[in-house]
Amino acid sequence: MSLEDAFITIFRQIASGFWSAIWFLVGLLGCIALVLVIISLLRLSKRRTQIALERRRREKLEITLDGAPLPPLARGLCDNCHEFFDKIYFLPAGSKLCPTCYRALHAT
Ligand SMILES: [Zn+2]
After folding, report:
1. How far is the centre of ligand 1, averaged over its atoms, from the C-alpha of 89 (Å)?
2. 73 alpha carbon to ligand 1 midpoint, in Å?
3. CA-based Rg of the chain, rounded to a whole angstrom?
4. Segment 16-61, tens digit of pLDDT
5. How far apart, in whole angstroms, are the C-alpha atoms of residue 7 and residue 38?
6. Separation of 53 CA from ligand 1 center, angstroms?
7. pTM here?
C-alpha cells in the first residue's frame, strides 16, 4: 500500500464518518420536529377541550357569553314565531321567546 492509497483510505473513512454524522443530525432534527408537531397537536386539542368545557359550563350556569344571566325557562308559546316549545325564555319585559328567537334577537 502506497502513501497515496493510505491517504485515500483515510479520506474515505473521514468522508463516510462525515456523511453518517450528517444523517445522524438529519434523523435527530426529524425526531425533534416530530416531537414538536405532536406537542403542538396535543396543545391544540387541549385548547379545544377547554373551549368546549367552558361553553358547556356557561350553558349549565345559563349565562350568555357576555356573562349576563339568561331569563327563566318554562314550557310555552313563543311570541316571535308563535310555536310551542318545552323551553321558552320569559323575558323581564314580559315577552316570551324560544331559544332560537332569543339568540337571533340578542345576537345583534
Ligand atoms: Zn321563536
Report:
1. 10
2. 13
3. 34
4. 888 888 999 999 999 999 999 999 999 999 999 999 998 887 776 6
5. 46
6. 27
7. 0.41
